[in-house]
């Protein structure tokens, strides 16, 4: 009987708990896709470029700065220029789709004293998420567009004010004026 008891006890020790349901939303791919070049991207040679050096030759000896007649680097070829333009275009489209609270912020009190640094991700619709950092630590930040909640700290009732936001900052039942401003 003791062998059966030990086997049952060992089974209890190795038993895994059931996975907990997640409170976070599942991953959704971004509305604006990053730049993804097609299969033939860079495959075409521009006219007149066939005789140009495509790769830098390895150095055989140290080269003095005075030996360069023009730029230190080769001029980007058409493929590199097109890729950089594609990345810049994708970034611009992503920025255009972002909401007004997207980005870096500072929460300051009524006298302009910085209380917390925040990073918020505002997809333009739906819930806004992010994080805060301050003298007391760090944590999650969420907003519904009307109220900003700093987990474990307090809430700010949001009203647009110029390039930022202002409102009533509530901590532990006490309320005072505060603003969200962009860091310098």
Kindly describe this structure.
This protein is of the alpha+beta class and 184 residues long. The protein contains two helices and nine strands, in the order H-H-E-E-E-E-E-E-E-E-E. Strands 1-2-3-4-5-6-8-9 form an eight-stranded antiparallel β-barrel. A hairpin with a 4-residue loop joins strand 1 (103-109) and strand 2.
Radius of gyration: 28 Å
Q: Could you give the count of β-strands?
A: 9
Which structural class best describes the helix and strand composition? alpha+beta
Strand content: 25-35%
Shape: elongated
Biggest beta sheet summary: 8 strands, antiparallel, barrel
Report the uncertain regions.
5-13
Mean pLDDT: 79
Span between N and C termini? 73 Å
Number of helices: 2
Helix-strand topology string: HHEEEEEEEEE
Q: What's the helical proportion of residues?
A: 10-25%
Strand order of the largest sheet: 1-2-3-4-5-6-8-9
Give the helices and strands, then pairings.
Elements: H1 2-14, H2 78-97, E1 103-109, E2 114-121, E3 128-134, E4 137-143, E5 147-150, E6 154-157, E7 159-161, E8 164-171, E9 174-181
Features:
8-stranded antiparallel beta barrel, 2 helices
Short description:
It contains 2 helices and 9 strands, in the order ααβββββββββ.
């Amino acid at each position: 009987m003791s062998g059966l008891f030990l086997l049952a006890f060992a089974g209890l020790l190795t038993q895994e708990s059931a996975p907990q349901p997640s409170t976070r939303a599942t991953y959704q791919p971004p509305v604006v896709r990053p730049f993804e070049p097609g299969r033939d991207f860079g495959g075409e040679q521009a006219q007149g470029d066939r005789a140009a050096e495509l790769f830098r030759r390895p150095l055989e000896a140290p080269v003095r700065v005075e030996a360069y007649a023009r730029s230190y680097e080769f001029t980007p070829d058409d493929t590199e220029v097109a890729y950089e333009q594609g990345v810049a275009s994708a970034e611009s489209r992503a920025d255009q789709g972002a909401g007004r609270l997207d980005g870096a912020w500072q929460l300051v009190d009524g006298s302009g004293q910085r209380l917390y640094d925040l990073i918020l991700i505002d997809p333009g619709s739906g819930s806004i998420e992010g994080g805060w950092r301050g003298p007391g630590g760090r944590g999650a930040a969420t907003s519904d567009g009307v109220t900003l909640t700093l987990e474990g700290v307090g809430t700010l009732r949001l009203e647009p004010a110029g390039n930022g936001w202002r409102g009533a900052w509530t901590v532990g039942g006490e309320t005072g004026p505060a603003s969200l401003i962009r860091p310098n």
